[in-house]
Amino acid sequence: MTSINLKAYSDDPSKINALMAFMKALSIKFEFTDKDEKPYDDAFVAKIQKSQDDYKKGKGKTYTVEELNKLWK
Prior knowledge:
By secondary structure, the chain is mainly alpha-helical. 49% of the residues lie in helices and 0% in strands. It has one domain. It is elongated, with a radius of gyration of 23 Å. The chain starts with 12 loop residues before the first helix and ends with a helix.
């Protein structure tokens, strides 16, 4: 079985119902997810936020391009 992800957006419930009826008529399995589904894990978001806060407090370090190139070589 081949599977794809499909996202459809509409504020009109009749259009959603029509789409569901069409998919049912073709025997296409589908599921609904919460519209407010978060794309990132909460722990990851917290880690990034902490990182940004630390940088604002002066805990970060800025590198020049030359310094980065030395690290990569």
